[in-house]
Design a protein that fits this description.
heterodimer, A: mainly alpha, four-stranded antiparallel sheet, 21 helices, elongated, B: mainly alpha, signal transduction inhibitor (chain B), RGS7BP/RGS9BP (chain B), transmembrane (chain B), membrane (chain B)
């Protein structure tokens, strides 16, 4: 659609939220004359308005259509009502689905909740002006406040608001009585959803907290930020297999898995690039299992291996199973924190106090402070020494640079590139169709040849 | 007078915009029909003509250097009203496009939402076009055919608004509204009738009426007594 980006003014680039789209689909499926909800008539003093349904009908229909329990159906119905797709007729201010005989009606598509078309101040002002005229000045408390607020805020278009309100009322008079009532109900329901009456104190407290945090966020000048970004890219470019190629060869292209074998966690001699990468940052060293093992060896020589073990145990706590949390916390305490522990870690007294307090109610993040302390200790102290140590320098010297595989001179001797065997062939029962499809591809699905040795 | 002409044009545009919004509200509901789509087409074409006329008139006036200060302020106010009206028109046109795509009329699988409306919108359309009765002469698949035109027209309106912003320099915040809060109540609008028949009937009206009736009765009683006394005095003297 060309409208979305449209014209120099730019369109409305927002998309409809997926949950709202799902609700819309649900509402449309309710309209089916065969399997949708059955409608009743609403009788007012003189007029009869069609297309009303009871709360019970809605709940029953949801249970039947989706095969869910009554509780879930009620919850789903409540969501639909809260978002304004269905509105109650008896008690319009309370947007809940009552599973009894209380009547409800569908909202017109124009008034459906939409992130693409948020409710604007101008529309709200026009609505309040219309209500003011209809009720001869008798608005509800919060509506009066909003009215005065809007008069100040959009004062420059207030004349338009009044003009438009009058005209809209005159236009509505051209419809028949029943439709006029429905339109009023629809509009009222729409604004009850989009401008709910009162927000409690909690909401404002949360808003204040959020704004305060937003102000306190650290901001970096974009020039500095971009410099950092450039440095990062320069540092990592030689390590990127796509940008700088990978040695011996890219397995995806040549079907030769040496690259993966050499860089596996269990490899004995690491490649040079890999060892260099450990010098980029402490995180890189810890992320690589081989690097971590080497670091552990180094720490053992320095008699501070318990730091790394403690850190690993804390990681296990943070990312482990909920059911094992209490057990892990107890184990950590015994091994690392208790006064006479075998592998006692050196944490400062304040953090130790706080951690010991927290041990009374163990949870996933109870060791966070201590873990951070030990992590920073290793990073500031042991890590630089590791990089300057003999161990590391030997590793760097012994690290291997794999040779690039020689390209074949004669093109027709080059290994045929082919896709890996189709997974359909591996199916036990398999369709005859799938097998028949694979037949033309059969000859190409040869196993990896041992040409490149 | 130029001012009156401008005001009249603006009122006309305002009226058509209100009618257009009213009609866009009914898309997708049970009042939706081919007739409605045709009405939408005619109404928005009329709205566009009026918008162009308004723009031309107002831009010539605003460019005119011989206009007095108060007049200029007045024209700027009218300009702000005009641009807001156009914004609302554009938004409604976009929504009409979106709803038109979502609710095509001749597809049997796609059902209209049962919103409780049963009447048509021909009265509203007639009001917008300022004629007595609407004539329907479009083909039966106007709901699909019209959408292309609608897209083009939305682009046109968008460009017009951009041009307006670039060419005319009227800062919106300098305009002050003439109407105070509650000004709409002073007009002679008899729209109270619609509240009768609503489910939540207000009893306030009846109380006011009773007090008015009581006051009337007391006043007329006092008047009668005064007349009787005067007659007695005349008779006795």
């Amino acid at each position: 659609m060309t409208i979305g980006g449209g014209g120099p003014r730019g369109g409305h680039p927002r998309l409809q939220m997926p949950c709202l789209r799902k609700m819309e689909r649900l509402i449309v499926s309710m309209q089916d004359p065969d399997v949708g909800i059955k409608m009743r008539n609403q009788r007012l003093l003189i007029t009869v308005i069609p297309h009303a349904m009871t709360g019970n009908d809605i709940v029953e229909w949801l249970i039947q259509k989706y095969g869910i329990s009554e509780e879930e159906s009620l919850h789903l119905g409540n969501l639909i009502v809260k978002h304004g797709y269905i509105y109650p007729l008896k008690d319009p201010r309370s947007l809940v689905l009552r599973p009894d005989e209380s009547p409800y009606r569908f909202q017109t598509p124009y008034f459906w909740t939409s992130t693409k078309w948020p409710a604007t101040e101008l529309d709200y002002a026009i609505y309040l002006a219309k209500k003011n005229i209809r009720k001869q000045g008798d608005l509800i408390e919060h509506e009066k406040d909003n009215y005065n607020l809007l008069h100040k805020r959009i004062n420059h278009t207030w004349d338009f608001v009044v003009m438009q309100a009058r005209e809209q009322l005159r236009a509505a008079k051209q419809r028949r009585k029943g439709d006029r009532i429905v339109i009023e109900c629809q509009e009222q329901a729409y604004w009850l959803v989009n401008r709910p009456p009162a927000k409690n104190m909690d909401h404002y407290k949360r808003e204040i907290e959020y704004c305060r945090k937003a102000m306190a966020r650290t901001r970096v000048k974009s020039s500095i930020c971009l410099e950092g970004y450039l440095k990062f890219n320069e540092q990592y470019v030689p390590h990127d297999p796509i940008m700088s190629g990978c040695l011996p060869s890219n397995p995806w292209i040549t079907d030769d898995t040496t690259y993966w074998a050499m860089n596996a966690a269990t490899a004995t001699t690491p490649t040079k690039l890999r060892v260099e990468r450990w010098a980029f940052g402490f995180g890189e060293l810890l992320a690589d299992p081989l690097g971590r093992a080497q670091f552990l060896d180094f720490l053992k020589k320095e008699f501070s291996a318990e730091n790394l073990s403690f850190w690993e145990a804390c990681e296990e706590l943070r990312y482990g199973e909920q059911s094992r949390i209490a057990a892990i916390v107890a184990a950590i305490y015994e091994q690392f924190l208790a006064p006479g522990a075998t592998r006692w870690v050196n944490i400062d007294s304040k953090t130790m106090e706080r951690t010991l307090e927290g041990l009374k109610t163990p949870h996933r993040y109870v060791m966070d402070d201590a873990q951070m302390h030990i992590y920073m200790l290793m990073k500031k102290d042991s890590y630089p020494r590791f990089l300057k140590s003999e161990l590391y320098r030997n590793l760097l010297a012994e690290a291997v640079i794999p040779p690039e595989t020689k390209k074949r001179v004669f093109p027709f001797m080059r290994k045929q590139r082919h896709s890996s065997p189709s997974p359909a062939l591996l199916l036990p029962a398999g369709d005859a169709e799938a097998k028949a499809e694979d037949k033309p591809r059969g000859p190409a699905a040869a196993p990896v040849p041992e040409e490149e040795g | 007078m130029v001012k009156e002409e401008c005001k009249a044009l603006l009122d006309a545009l305002n009226k058509v915009t209100a009618c257009y919004r009213h009609m866009v509200l009914t898309i997708g509901g049970t009042s939706d029909s081919q007739n409605l789509r045709e009405e939408l087409k005619k109404t928005r074409q009329k709205a566009q003509e009026l918008a162009v006329a308004n723009r031309n008139k107002l831009t010539t006036v605003l460019k005119d250097k011989t206009v007095s200060k108060e007049d200029k302020a007045e024209f700027e106010r009218l300009w702000v009203i005009f641009s807001t009206c156009l914004e609302i028109l554009e938004i409604d046109m976009r929504r009409a496009l979106e709803l038109g795509h979502e609710f095509p009329l001749n597809v049997p699988k796609k059902h209209l939402i049962q919103t409780g409306m049963s009447g048509g919108t021909s009265g509203v359309a007639a009001r917008a076009m300022s004629i007595q009765n609407m004539k329907y002469e479009a083909e039966h698949n106007i709901d699909v055919v019209d959408l292309k035109d609608l897209e083009n027209e939305i682009n046109q309106v968008g460009e017009m608004m951009y041009e307006m912003e670039m060419k005319v320099n009227v800062p919106q915040w300098t305009v002050e509204a003439k109407q105070d809060p509650g000004a709409e109540l002073k007009s002679t609008m008899s729209v109270g009738a619609s509240s009768i028949g609503m489910v939540s009937v207000e009893e306030n009206k009846s109380f006011c009426d009773i007090s008015k009736v009581l006051a009337g009765i007391i006043f007329s009683a006092v008047l009668i007594i005064a007349i009787v006394l005067a007659v007695c005095v005349v008779k006795l003297s």
